[in-house]
Task: inverse folding
């Protein structure tokens, strides 16, 4: 394999380059329009800044049609979002904003609570599930260590951009991104469905041949019976799936980011200490990423020199510099989207893991595992900042925990019965498409409102208090 970025599937490298060109071109056009709108008089811009910062709105937790509808949507979004490894923030934020009535910032904070609850229950479920084809953990800790630091760094960048970017521009950029990732995932699901159909036909053919009486089959009846393979208990499966070294490193990154975020939030915006705590997050994330990337690169080079074609981890790509830089870019992009939207970054990470050759079950388990760290970090930070009402947060977390268990159990059973792991990819695509539609609707509604009220639609001040 050459040094270009090539993923499984037909013309993987070309499709990947086309997607990057599509994303950058569409984003450039959207940002250029915003820069054009930036030429508004400073007095009107200052007045509009106040209008753009919506006041805090916290509806009471009570039983009515709004809370009932939000519960149903939240349950289904959590169940299928965690199965696909995308979280569901693109559904939760508009739901909490439009149906329940929370302001945008509070809706984003509560969305993180829901993602954390669903991710926690899904991780607990996955720890008691075997890998579909190997004697290895169903969670790929190498990929988690590679993406989690960059994802958290991207969330910091996304939160900063959410202060500067107008809401309509955030909606446009996210819809562009979601349409691209959902279409790629959907076509990949179709390819996998066709491959599974061929494999099922071959298995049925072999079963028919095995049932046909022949001399060889008659002789096989007299062969001694082999003892049945040992079935692992729940504790044995959990011990197999746990890798304490990787978990400790991930926790170290989590605590480092949490302390830096708390110190940053305790300082004045745009003060020297504020920028110091912001900048310190870069060496923390980059050092862990570089450590894991160097490990994958050295092992990949060693195996190539030996002529060994076995994959280092679940990803079936050659870990060269272009692939590693691309993974770093996608991790930052996923985190940035998570910070802008209030999601866990799974809308990029889930499809990316599928693109680099990870089987759907492992991609879902790994993406959900990484999202647990990123979403819980945001929840703890939002808690200290008082960004969400505790009763509503506890209720939504409970709904998401139950939904995460149900979604994993139901879909895993469905995959086992139908023998089609591509179902997970289709669920991922449907959740992303639904998120794109809801975000698009909210963005259009917000834009119409701002135009009618003559609000400023350009970039806002980052240091505004």
Result:
């Amino acid at each position: 394999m050459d040094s270009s970025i090539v993923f499984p599937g037909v013309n993987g490298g070309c499709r990947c380059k086309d997607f990057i060109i599509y994303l950058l071109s569409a984003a450039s056009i959207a940002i250029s329009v915003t820069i054009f709108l930036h030429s508004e008089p400073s007095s009107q811009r200052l007045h509009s800044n106040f209008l753009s910062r919506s006041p805090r709105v916290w509806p009471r937790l009570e039983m009515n049609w709004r809370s009932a509808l939000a519960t149903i949507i939240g349950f289904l979004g959590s169940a299928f979002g965690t199965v696909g490894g995308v979280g569901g923030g693109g559904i939760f934020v508009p739901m909490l904003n439009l149906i329940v009535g929370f302001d945008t910032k509070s809706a984003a904070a509560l969305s993180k609570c829901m993602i954390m609850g669903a991710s926690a229950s899904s991780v607990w479920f996955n720890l008691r599930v075997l890998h579909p084809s190997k004697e290895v953990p169903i969670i790929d800790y190498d990929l988690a260590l590679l993406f989690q630091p960059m994802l958290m760094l991207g969330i910091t960048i996304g939160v900063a951009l959410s202060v500067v970017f107008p809401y309509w521009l955030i909606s446009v950029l996210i819809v562009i991104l979601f349409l691209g990732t959902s279409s790629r995932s959907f076509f990949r699901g179709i390819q996998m469905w066709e491959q599974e159909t061929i494999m099922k036909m071959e298995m049925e053919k072999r079963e028919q041949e095995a049932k046909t009486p022949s001399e060889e089959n008659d002789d096989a009846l007299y062969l001694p019976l082999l003892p049945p393979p040992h079935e692992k208990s729940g504790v044995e499966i959990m011990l197999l799936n746990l890798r304490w070294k990787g978990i400790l490193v991930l926790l170290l990154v989590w605590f480092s980011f949490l302390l830096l975020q708390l110190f940053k939030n305790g300082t004045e915006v745009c003060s020297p200490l504020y920028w110091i705590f912001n900048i310190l997050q870069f060496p923390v994330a980059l050092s862990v990423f570089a450590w894991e990337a160097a490990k994958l690169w050295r092992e990949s080079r060693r195996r190539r020199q030996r002529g060994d074609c076995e994959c280092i981890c679940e990803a079936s790509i050659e870990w060269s510099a272009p692939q590693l830089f691309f993974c770093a870019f996608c991790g930052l992009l996923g985190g940035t989207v998570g910070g802008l939207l209030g999601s866990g970054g799974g809308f990029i990470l889930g499809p990316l893991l599928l693109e680099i050759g990870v089987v759907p079950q492992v991609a879902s388990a790994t993406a959900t595992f990484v999202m647990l760290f990123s979403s819980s970090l945001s929840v703890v930070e939002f808690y200290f900042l008082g960004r969400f009402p505790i009763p509503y947060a506890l209720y939504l977390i409970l709904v998401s925990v139950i939904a995460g268990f149900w979604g994993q159990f139901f879909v895993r059973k469905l995959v086992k019965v139908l023998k089609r792991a591509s179902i997970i990819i289709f669920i991922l695509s449907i959740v992303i498409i639904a998120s794109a539609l809801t975000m698009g609707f909210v963005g259009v509604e917000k834009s119409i409102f701002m135009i009618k009220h003559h609000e400023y639609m350009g970039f806002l001040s980052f240091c505004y208090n």
Notes: The chain has a mean pLDDT of 79. Residues 17-30+65-202+241-452 form one domain. The first helix runs from residue 12 to 37.
